[in-house]
Amino acid sequence: MTYGYIRVSTDAQNTENQKMEIQKFCAQNGINIDLWVEDIISGTKDPSFRKLGKVIMENIRNGDLIICTELSRLGRSLLMIMNTLNFFQERNASVWTIKDNFRLSDDITSKVVSFAFGLAAEIERQLISQRTKVALERAKKSGVHIGRRKGQKSSHYKLTPFNKYIIEEINAGRSIKSLAKEFQVSWDTIKNHIRRIS
């Protein structure tokens, strides 16, 4: 399966330019696009909340190819791009970009690149965690209360920012198992959260 992936941030932007670039590239290289996937959403959103995640990443198979105009279409942050590329590499899928002339394929060079991406992503996660801990410690020393007061019931949970999305997906027939997998939580966590917000 060959995917043509297009992303723009707002409705005001046109997807046609990216599509034309991909079509021209494919015509020159004898490639046929089996499925076009278009996102009109900010690249700061995690792929799991975009069609990139819901359509491509959920269905990707060994040997599949994703073509997009440039790496920035996959995400706005280096960490997000690296994680996405690493995801595809682990599933032996290829990612080609046109402007960057980037090729992630099933060869030794790509495996080395993938390892570097994975390592860099892990280092970045650790640095973010470390910065967060330092900031929290600094806030505590300044007398700022962290977390909820003793005896106060929490009104905000890990999944709270996604209430609307979760309800829409459940109403559309989405399974709890699928949502649990997307959010990387247990079935019980999803079920309890749905019970809270229903």
General description of the model:
The chain is an alpha/beta fold and 198 residues long. Helices cover 49% and strands 12% of the residues. It has helices at 16-29, 51-59, 78-90, 108-141, 163-171, 176-183, 187-197, and strands at residues 2-8, 35-40, 65-68, 94-97, 103-104. It is globular and about 60 Å long. 18% of the residues are buried.
How many strands appear in the DSSP assignment? 5
Which runs of at least 5 residues are low in confidence (pLDDT < 50)?
none
| Measured distance between first and last alpha carbons | 39 Å
Which structural class fits the helix and strand makeup? alpha/beta
- Estimated share of beta-strand residues: 5-15%
**With helices defined by DSSP (H or I, 4 residues minimum), what is the helix count?**
7
Biggest sheet record = 5 strands, mixed
N-to-C SSE series? EHEHEHEEHHHH
Summarize the amount of helix as a percent range: 40-55%
- The gross shape turns out to be globular
Strand order of the largest sheet: 2-1-3-4-5
Rg: 20 Å
Overall mean confidence score, pLDDT: 82
Task: Write the SSE topology.
Layout (H helix, E strand, L loop, with lengths): L1 E7 L7 H14 L5 E6 L10 H9 L5 E4 L9 H13 L3 E4 L5 E2 L3 H34 L21 H9 L4 H8 L3 H11 L1
Helix pairs in contact: 3-4, 6-7
Short description:
By secondary structure, the chain is α/β, with parallel strands linked by helices.
Q: Which features does this protein show?
A:
5-stranded mixed sheet, alpha/beta, 198 residues
